[in-house]
Amino acid sequence: KSIRALASGVLWSDDVQRKAGYSSKRAVALTKAAMVRHGGSEELQVAALDALSRYLDKAGLTADVLEGGGEGLVKAVMARHIGCSKVQKIGRSVLDFLGVDKSWKPAGRGTNGSGR
Predict the structure, then answer these.
(1) Is 6 helix (H, G, I), strand (E, B) or coil?
(2) Of 103, 53, 102, 43, nearest to 74 (Cα)?
(3) DSSP conformation letters of 25-91
(4) Secondary structure (3-state) at 112
(5) Which of 31, 34, 66, 112 has the most CB within a 10 Å radius?
(6) For 12, left (φ over 0), alpha (ψ -120 to 50), or beta?
(7) Model's pTM, two decimal places?
(8) Rounded to an integer, what distance in angstroms lies between the CA atom of residue 4 and that of residue 23?
(9) Is 46 in contact with 86 (CB distance < 8 Å)?
(10) 32 — phi, psi (to 5°)?
């Protein structure tokens, strides 16, 4: 829920963001840190990828998402959760926003964190 709440901030007006002390750059960084720390949580990865998609689509934060290896992080999540259609769909959307070759697909077999 926290990741989704952070992502909703990109839709706030500049005035509201300023009053709330909202930083989209910090929100992106926190989202990526949560993805790394909780790599096995399919639910968190879906929420985080959705947030990254929102940061890219609604706020054009491509540089912030790419910073520190964002493309590789998304690819790693997709590989780890290869059996989760939501991770694959939203992850592909994020990669499309980042301009990654549309033919890229996760190789090998991963786990989705639930033993399935």
Answers:
(1) helix
(2) 53
(3) HHHHHHHHHHHHHTTT-HHHHHHHHHHHHHHHHHH--HHHHHTTTHHHHHHHHHHHTTT-HHHHHHH
(4) coil
(5) 31
(6) beta
(7) 0.90
(8) 15
(9) yes
(10) -65, -35
